[in-house]
Amino acid sequence: xxxxxxxHELSLIAVRAAALEVAAGLDKQQSVAAGQLRAGAAQATERxxxxxxxxREDAAPVEPVQGDLGELIDRARSSGIEIEAQPADxxxxxxxxxxxxxxxxxxxxxxxxxxxxxxxxxxxxxxxxETTEVVVRNAAPPAGPLPGSSGQRGLIGLQERVRLxxxxxxxxxxxxxxxxxxxxxxxxxxxxxxxxxxxxxxxxRQRELVRRDVRRSLVQAILVPSALxxxxxxxxxxxxxxxxxxxxxxSSVYAxxxxxxxxxxxxxxxxxRQRTSLPAANEPPRPPGxxxxxxxxxxxxxxxxxxxxxxxxxxxxxxxxxxxxxxxP
Length: 329
What we know:
44% of the residues lie in helices and 17% in strands. By secondary structure, it is an alpha+beta fold. It has 3 domains: 190 residues, Heat Shock Protein 90, CATH 3.30.565.10; 45 residues; 79 residues, Beta-lactamase Inhibitory Protein, Chain:B, domain 1 (2-Layer Sandwich).
């Protein structure tokens, strides 16, 4: 299945979900689930178009189409779209014209399903020996449109496809609805792009703007979380280093501490913070009923084996002082 066909099928899923959302006999939870499915399918369609706009080649594909207009219209009808169709026999049209006609109808039905749910659609295809004309018009939607953008990206690609076979495409609002109309000559070269003194053409300019928007959103999706992560890590690192420094007890002060001294007397010599990054093993047994405090040693934070001074107090007096580390048995 091509990306264009996948886009069309996703839109039909959204239409089926919209019909299910208002169907009789569903409880509130089921109706909400159908609405979520409808919104998700529409958003997936929009995301698919953004990715196609970035990845596809500048020129529209021109390989022959293997699709039948009647089958395309029947599938759309089965999804719940009300369609009045007058398709012509395109067996006598060149393959590239038949492909373009198929894509015009497909894009018109996709836009109607996506942006005008519940609206009636008219499909008219007329073909002569010289030209094929396609018109897809939907009435004004009876309810609000499905979430998403205007569908301009798909029309930009379709306009390029039609131009490459010498045809013209017009897409505009008509009587509250929307109409996509194409004239496809059977024997013509690529039509010139609309003149523009500043850029190579309106279609090319629009494609580039779309690509820039998508690239910008992709860059933001990558850089913004990375920048926030860097900021968090930086702040965390600074806090860790401050805590490490302010919880360090020098070996000379540790050596002067004597069991039996009151906690109040020792307070002036002890760090303002306690060490939170402690050795994972080898801590000596804690004296019964004692409250222990932990301080850093002279080791730096770069040392892989952590160590700590432990001071245990009972009844306001120092009862034991211990040094232990991860590299001791």
